[in-house]
Amino acid sequence: MKFSENWLRHHVPTRASRDELAATLTAIGLEVEDVTALGNALDGVVVARIVSAQKHPEADRLQVCQVDTGSGTVQIVCGAPNARAGLVAPLATVGAVLPGGIAIKAAKLRGVESSGMLCSAKELGVDPDASGLLELPADATIGMPLATYLGLPDATIEIKLTPNRADCFSVRGIAFDVAAALGGEVIPLDATPVPAQSDATLKVVLEAGARVPRFAGRVIDNVDATVETPVWMAERLRRSGLRPISFLVDVTQYVMLELGQPMHAFDKDTLEGEIVVRPARAGESLALLDGRTVELDDDFLVVSDSRGGKGARAVALGGIMGGADTRVTDVTRNVFLEAAHWIPSAIIGRSRKLGMHTDAAHRFERGVDPQLPGIAVEYATRLILDIAGGVAGPLLDVTLPQHLSSPEPILLRRARLARVLGLTVADDEVVRIFTALGMQVEALADGWRVTAPSRRFDIEREEDLIEEVARIHGYENIPTHTPAGALTLAAEPEARLNELAVREQLAARGYYEAVNLAFVGNEVLQRWGMTEQLVALANPLSADLAVMRPSLLPGLVAALSHNRARQQERVRLFELGRTFGIAPAAAAAKEAPTETPSLAMVACGTAQAEQWGEATRTLDFHDLKGDLDALIAWGGEPQRWAVHADGLPGWLHPGRGARVTRDGVTAGYLGALHPQLAKALDLGADVHVLELALDPVLARRLPRAQPVARFPSVRRDIAMDLPEAVSWSQIEQVIRTTLGEQLRELRLFDRYSGKGVEAGRKSLAMGLILQDASRTLTDDDADRYVREAVAALEMACKARLRG
């Protein structure tokens, strides 16, 4: 929000200096980003009129001007392209020193004497425009000091607003905060209702329900649209970052900046029949004031008239921009002023959807006082009548009362205020703060009942009132104390691992934690083949961040790629975060998306960091599988986990990937990236990934104390000839199921395929560690268990015992 310092002081008189005012604004949460001083050194600069302008005899681009200073005529040599007879412009007289340090002296230019300098806005430091002389109105008083005429010195102040302070997108909204902080009072706004001078009116119909619960308007006939915008209004607009266009347009902009209510002026003669506020129709188009023609759908709201039938023609894009066909011009004689209340949800994201950003939409998206439309129309009407004349019709204020709510009183407890702030604020000071902020205060025995004005959407509960007291009373006045309190230590559940332990385990295995955004782009997900059950954002920050991530891997692999592009060949990254998705049935029922805590790991490069003890080799599937085994071993139940070669997603390598399950339920996937995906992402073939749902990883067997075994264990080794497709997890499950508690451990110590083994089969040698808790196993017992295990493998896995 950018505004004129003098304009603010007009609403809240204060003796605070400019620096004190800027410091106060920042201290109360309205952070000042920039202060630009204007017209601080304009002594000797006066309003002057060029009486005549003749071509310089020795230079084509210079003119010799005779200039009336109000106290005589001086000769000025000027090179401005707009210098002409009759022009009123600023003149820096001999002896003046301009803001840039330029000292004005009498001089000769190409042999012609010049006694002063006609100035541009940039030379005066009042505007960046240097295209020509600053043109002043023809009725300006000749000889008047320019600073007096333009209301200088002044400053442009730009503040950074948080989304909750929509009320401060107006000079008067800021004025209430300044009055409260500096102990002043806001001058009441003169918005006396204008009596109707005619019966001219338009019928207004609201068909958008709660999205537009109020619409105010007025017809003003016989307006002089050619009148120039008064200097005081034009300068306030210019110093607020808006360039004056024409009086009727400038009035609506001025009211928006002063009160915070966006408005629009229609040429009434271009409207037909009644005004209808309705949702746009699919495929409907509208030519806007900026020259664009946009295609609309029923997500937008429009103001329409009855040309071609009731509400047939859209004439403005609701809450965003007016239409070109009904705009006011210099030939406009009859005006229809409009000010409506569009709720934020009806406007948010609409202008961005069209690639636009307007001051009106910026305000409506954050919330505008629902009581303002009628006040704004009355205020604008008075300005138009005073400056451009005209005959005003009756005020139209159409409302849907059932959709308009009033602020509810909020109880602020005195003890709660003192406890939260850590100090006691005097009752009189609390009442003064709330009153200065425009709130209604009722004193109670234990505190106050406070009703916020309708413009303060951010005041909803007691904590908000406490924040207002702290903000205005001054954070610097709140004492600093060491926090005190009784902390309750919650016991860690033994049946669940701590996420910190997972992080520490992965860090110990050489992985670095990454934190990525929870948003990704559609294009990235299409590359991964993740196109279903997506949660799209209604108002994304950009096209690259339009979808909530369905997986941690796209972001994590992008981070890996970023590191590899910076000469990091060996990369190990992991991330713990949430993924998002919505099933078709849930989407149809408009249910909330599901959030799944997840763990992802990516790795590439060599299996070991650079060292001399082992031969260098490239990381493979089994390295990442080993990291997974180490992780799930912490849960104490690795036998509940298994990997399978079927059911792989399209982004995994079909021959070097696996589906990971716990108790038969899919928990995630592991393996190398699919070659086509790796090529599309400009990655090497050695990138391996893992993604698991986090809850199964954190599940832990409850630790139980067990006596040390009193009886020795027995080991038996067997070698089995099995089909190549049979996985070790299947073999392990079969043997553990068959032998039960007698099997203490199962070790795979050899794998062989080649000579002596049929094609398509493999030989696995494994050790069975057998033990009984109640007795010593005999050789017969051990042999029996081996026979049972071999028989089970033969039946379930088509295995053969090798001799």
Automatic annotation (TrEMBL):
Keywords: Aminoacyl-tRNA synthetase, ATP-binding, Cytoplasm, Ligase, Magnesium, Metal-binding, Nucleotide-binding, Protein biosynthesis, RNA-binding, tRNA-binding
Residues annotated as domain TRNA-binding: 39-147
Signal peptide: none
Enzyme Commission number(s) from the entry: 6.1.1.20
Sites where the protein binds Mg(2+): 458, 464, 467-468
Pfam families named in the record: B3_4 (PF03483), B5 (PF03484), FDX-ACB (PF03147), tRNA_bind (PF01588), tRNA_synthFbeta (PF17759)
Transmembrane residue ranges: none
CDD domains: PheRS_beta_core (cd00769), tRNA_bind_bactPheRS (cd02796)
Residue ranges constituting the FDX-ACB domain according to the UniProt record: 709-802
Reaction catalysed by this enzyme: tRNA(Phe) + L-phenylalanine + ATP = L-phenylalanyl-tRNA(Phe) + AMP + diphosphate + H(+)
Known cofactor(s): Mg(2+)
Catalytic class of the enzyme: ligase
Cofactor note: Binds 2 magnesium ions per tetramer.
Record-linked Gene3D superfamilies: 3.30.56.10, Bira Bifunctional Protein, Domain 2, Ferrodoxin-fold anticodon-binding domain, Nucleic acid-binding proteins, Phenylalanyl-trna Synthetase, Chain B, domain 3
GO MF, one annotated term: phenylalanine-tRNA ligase activity
Domain B5: 405-480
Domain of life: Bacteria
Location in the cell: Cytoplasm
Assembly and oligomerization: Tetramer of two alpha and two beta subunits.
Family: Belongs to the phenylalanyl-tRNA synthetase beta subunit family. Type 1 subfamily.
Protein name: Phenylalanine--tRNA ligase beta subunit
Gene behind the chain: pheT
